[in-house]
Amino acid sequence: MMSFNKKSTFLFLTPLLLAIFLVQACGDGPSYYRQVELTPPEPYDTAQAVDDTTTDDGLTIYVLEEGEGRPEKTVTARDQVYVRYTGRTEDGKAFDSSYKNGSESPAILQNLTPVPKTSANGQTINPLIDGFRRGLLGMAEGEKRTLVIPPELGYGDPDKNYSGSDLEDKTLRFDIELVEIL
Prior knowledge:
Layout: H1 2-25, E1 51-54, E2 60-65, E3 81-89, E4 94-97, E5 107-109, E6 117-118, E7 124-125, H2 130-136, E8 144-149, E9 172-181
Antiparallel strand pairs: 1-2, 2-8, 3-4, 3-5, 3-9, 6-7, 8-9
Protein name: Peptidyl-prolyl cis-trans isomerase
Family: Belongs to the FKBP-type PPIase family.
Keywords: Isomerase, Rotamase, Signal
């Protein structure tokens, strides 16, 4: 008779414990699983640009504020940089930004070359899209630019295997502030 009670208790508690674990698993989960929310500032006003240039292949660079860094020290392809940036489509919708979840911390960009690089720990660092990469080159610390990137210099070339497939054939706009050259 005693073993029957233990067995009954076990049979009663097992489904109850499973139900409790199942309810716990359906919760919101830890905060590090929450979705990233882009919180960028308003787009830069290109009408206030101190300079603008359009390359033969359609990349337009608006300089909104000249840098206050050392004039002889500008971004080269071998540099790593801290930048604040926001990428938008032509309709103004932000698709990428260093401004996430209310943070204004700059992002570090490590590969300004047109080809993949390997980091010290063996990871592959893919290059930025060509228009963004070229728009960073020559910037001085503190400088602000707006880049208008045609599809061919953005995600429009499927042979480059970029992950922005929903941005193919779209003109992109990036507002960039160069915080520091590392």
